[in-house]
Amino acid sequence: MAAKTFLAGDLGGTKTLLALYSESDQGLQKDHARRYASAEWSDLESMLGDFLETLPPGLSKPETSCIAVAGPVHNRTAKLTNLPWSMSEDSLRQASGLERLELVNDFAVLIHGLSHFKASQQVVLQNGSGRNTPAPAGHDGGAVAILGAGTGLGMARGLPVTGGWLALPSEGGHREFAPRTEDEWQLAQWMRSDLELDRLSIERVVSGTGLGHVMCWMLSTHNNADHPLQGKAKAWKTLPADHPEHQDLPAHTSKAAGAGDQLAQAAMTLWLGAYGSAAGDLALQELCVGGLWIGGGTAEKVIDGLRSSQFLEPLRRKGRFMPLIESLTIRAVTDPEAGLFSAACRARDLAESGGTLA
Fold it and tell me: Which candidate, 78, 88, 69, places its Cα nearest to that of 13?
C-alpha cells in the first residue's frame, strides 16, 4: 500500500514549487517536486492539475495540501503581490479534487515548520535557559516568533493549539524605524530625504534592500568618490532589477565586507545592529518563550553576522528585560526550502486533525 502523501506548495510571482511529501521514520520526506515558472500559467488551478496528473508511478495522490502564497490571505482567499492572480481555497479544492487545502501567507507558514526543523535546517545563535522547545500537543512550549530580512522584513508569531500551531501573520516590519545611535539617526534623515518619505519603516533599513541603502549612505557621506562600490551603487539605484547592468548592491556589500573593505564592514555593522534590535523588540512584543527564529532570504548568507556580537548584543540590550531575552533560544533558519517544508508540515497537521485545526 502506498504511503500517505501531502501536497506542499510555495507560490511566488516568479516561480512556484510544488512537492509531494510522505511520512518516514525520520519525519517528513520529499518524494517528488516540480518547479514552475508562475507567469507561464493562467492560474494556480491549472498548475495544480498538471502536477497531480503527472505524478510518477507508485506515488499515491494526496488528499491534503497547504499552499504558501506570496501575498496576503484573507477569508480563505489570496491575491499574489507580484502576479495578477486571485484564488480561493474552495475553487482550488474543486479543481484539484483534494479533500482539504489551505492557503497560508508564505512567511507565516514557517510557524508550522519551526518545531519540526532538523539541525541541518537551522543554526542555534543563542542557547536559552527558559522554555524553548515548542510542543503544540502539550501546550507547554509557549508562543514562538520569527522575523526575516529578504526583499522586505517579514514577521509572524505562532500560538500552540491542539495538534499544531495557530500562525498569525504580521506587518510589524512596517512599524516606524526608531534610531538608537547617532549613525542610525543620520542614516534615517538621509533615507527620508533620498527616498522622499514622510516616515521611515523598519524594513526600509532592516532588509536586503535596506542594506543597499545603508551602503549608499556610507558612500555618500564618507567622501569615498573612488570607492569600488560607487558604480555598483549607482546602477543599483537607477536601473531596474531586470536590466542587464543592474547590480546586487547588498550582495556586493556583504562580499566586500568579508574581504576586509572598511566602509562595507561599517555598513554591515550598522545593518546588523538595527536588525538585532528589531529582533529583540519582536521577542518582547510576542513574549516568545517558545523560541525566536531568524529567517528570510538573507539568513544563510549572513550567518556569521547573525552569530556575532554586532547582531546579538543589540538584540539582548533591552533594559530590565535583558534577562528575559537571554533566556530565549534563538535560531536562524538556513534551509532555502524551509517554506515548502513548513507547508508540508501544515498539510500533515490538517490531515491528522481532519481539517479541524484553528
Answer: 69
- pLDDT, position 2: 57
Residue 226 one-letter amino acid: D
Query: In this structure, are residues 212 and 195 in contact, taking their beta carbons and an 8 Å threshold?
Result: no
Residue 265 carries which side chain, given as an amino acid letter?
Answer: Q
Please state, in angstroms and rounded to a whole number, the distance separating the CA atoms of residues 263 and 266.
5
- For residue 98, what pLDDT is reported? 95
| In the predicted structure, residue 219 carries a pLDDT above the cut 90 | yes
CATH 3.30.420.40 maps onto the chain at 5-112+337-353
Distance of CA 53 to the CA centre of its chain: 31
Fold observed for domain 118-334: Hexokinase; domain 1 (3.40.367)
What residues does CATH 3.40.367.20 cover in the chain? 118-334
266 burial (CB, 10 Å; 0-12 / 13-18 / 19+) is middle
Nearest Cα neighbor of 339 from 121, 83, 106 is 106
pLDDT digits (tens, 9 = 90+) for 130-174: 655 555 544 556 899 999 999 899 999 999 988 789 999 999 999
Pick the range with the lowest mean pLDDT from 63-67, 97-101, 120-124, 127-131.
127-131
Nearest to 334 by CA among 160, 123, 181: 123
- Maximum Cα–Cα distance across the chain: 70
- Considering the domain 5-112+337-353, what is its CATH architecture? 2-Layer Sandwich (3.30)
